[in-house]
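Hey, can you fold this one?
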Amino acid sequence: MTHRIVLSALLLLATAAATRGASAETVFQATLGESAQKTEEISTEQLKEILADKSAVVLDARPSLEFAMSHIPGALNVAAKPGLPMSAYVSDVAEISRLVDGKRDTPLVLYCNGPFCGKSKRLADELLGAGYTDVRRYQLGIPVWRALGGVTVIEPEGLRHVLTDDRTAVLIDVREADAFRHGSLPSARNIPRSLVLEGKDLGEVKRAKDDGRLPMEDHNTRVIVLGSDPGMARSVAEAIAREAFQNVTYFAGTFAEALAASRP
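Sure. Predicted structure:
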């Protein structure tokens, strides 16, 4: 229930920001709009454009395991700055420097856990202090990204962690029924990619909503989609996200890699 309230509040914040901003016409064009910030914010729409044209390096400013469990497709992550408590977590600027070959004019976009998270702001301050000249933030962060229908990616390490520690997660295997019958991950449910249709409340996704394969009583349940390859998994993950499921992630590897990650 708390997670649902938080997501609703974040979406309302984004909507309010859109209403306040004269240039913001939809929630996708909104920013948090905080005053006296050292770095510029970007909207969800702008972030999607940046990811599509690769015009900036998008950095997930959260810890590595959190990144591995769920991150925006195309984002990168670096190690933590050493010697700090978790409450003061910030990514290591030295690691970012190695990532961008020391080019301090590299366009950077940072995100973390949304309007109430300070990780992006702390990292932005450190980057400015180190001489970086093109730093922006997607301060609405991953909660609003999800609430607006965005899917995320799960890495092998994250999948292993979730399968061990999160008994509420729902696994969706999108390979064809014959392949699924020959074996899948424990507790996985089958929604064959070939039966997923374009549009809402159609085809196999609608049937999965009706027969319990999708968690209709809690749309914030973690839903993990895996397939023969990441492209297949992503297409079904996006279809599920369009059905108002707000925590949908797809596996970043092949089915064989998912199976290996599921083993102790």
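The longest helix spans residues 2-20. Let me know if you want another pass with a different chain boundary.
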